[in-house]
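Module 6 notes. Inverse folding takes a fixed backbone as the condition and produces residue identities as the prediction. Think of it as a translation problem where the source language is geometry and the target language is the twenty amino acids. Below is one complete input and output pair. Work through it position by position during the lab.
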């Protein structure tokens, strides 16, 4: 995977004349928000957001179908794992430690469900499909709005309630969970533990076997 020092800080800023720029609303053309300070959990989540951001220029524009397909698969692989790991690890912590954590977790899970449905459609598309870029643009638009809320408000509120040891443990649990969850989107699965956890453990081996036969970028191929 990409090392943090090699991640381009592209910010998903599009040229005025680009086709994708016209599809995205002006308020969401910056992918990852800038937080004044953050702890271990937000650091891990922001790093995942930056990885997703780094795949963007390989998926849109005048790229070959082969390149777009490889980075499409890598984008799906990364985002699917991120969403489920947050559902299983991060949102229960919100419910436990924040006064309004139940409402916040419910809002975030509903946003995740919409993104999972869009990701499910995107992961099934061919790079040559005329709807490939508009579908990806709509997915990004909703993802970007969710990322901003998460990085600026939701995760910082949770981190403020936890000490350093608790944050480190939660961050480690989040990273471990990403190794065990599905690598494709399954929007029909339950969206909260314990049923989501059980469904994830059933779907993950199937996804991982199928990943063996999928194309990924040669230099950034994930550990399957």
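Target side of the pair, the amino acids:
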């Amino acid at each position: 995977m990409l090392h943090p020092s090699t991640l381009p800080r592209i910010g998903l800023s599009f040229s005025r004349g680009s086709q994708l720029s016209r599809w995205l609303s002006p308020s969401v053309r910056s992918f990852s928000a800038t937080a004044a300070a953050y702890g271990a959990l937000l650091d891990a989540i922001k790093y995942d957001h930056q990885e997703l951001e780094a795949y963007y220029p390989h998926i849109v524009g005048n790229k070959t179908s082969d390149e777009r397909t490889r980075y499409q698969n890598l984008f799906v692989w990364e985002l699917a794992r991120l969403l489920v790991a947050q559902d299983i690890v991060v949102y229960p912590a919100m419910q436990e430690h924040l006064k309004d954590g139940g409402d916040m977790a419910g809002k975030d899970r509903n946003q995740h469900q919409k993104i999972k449905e869009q990701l499910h459609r995107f992961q099934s598309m061919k790079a040559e499909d005329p709807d490939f870029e508009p579908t990806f643009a709509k997915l990004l638009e909703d993802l970007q709005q969710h990322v901003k809320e998460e990085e600026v408000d939701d995760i910082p509120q949770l981190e403020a309630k936890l000490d350093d040891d608790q944050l480190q443990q939660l961050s480690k649990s989040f990273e471990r969970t990403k190794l065990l969850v599905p690598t494709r989107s399954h929007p029909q699965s339950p969206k909260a533990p314990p049923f989501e956890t059980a469904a994830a453990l059933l779907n993950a081996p199937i996804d991982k076997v199928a990943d063996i036969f999928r194309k990924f970028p040669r230099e950034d191929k994930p550990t399957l």
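Reference fact for the lab report: The longest helix spans residues 65-97.
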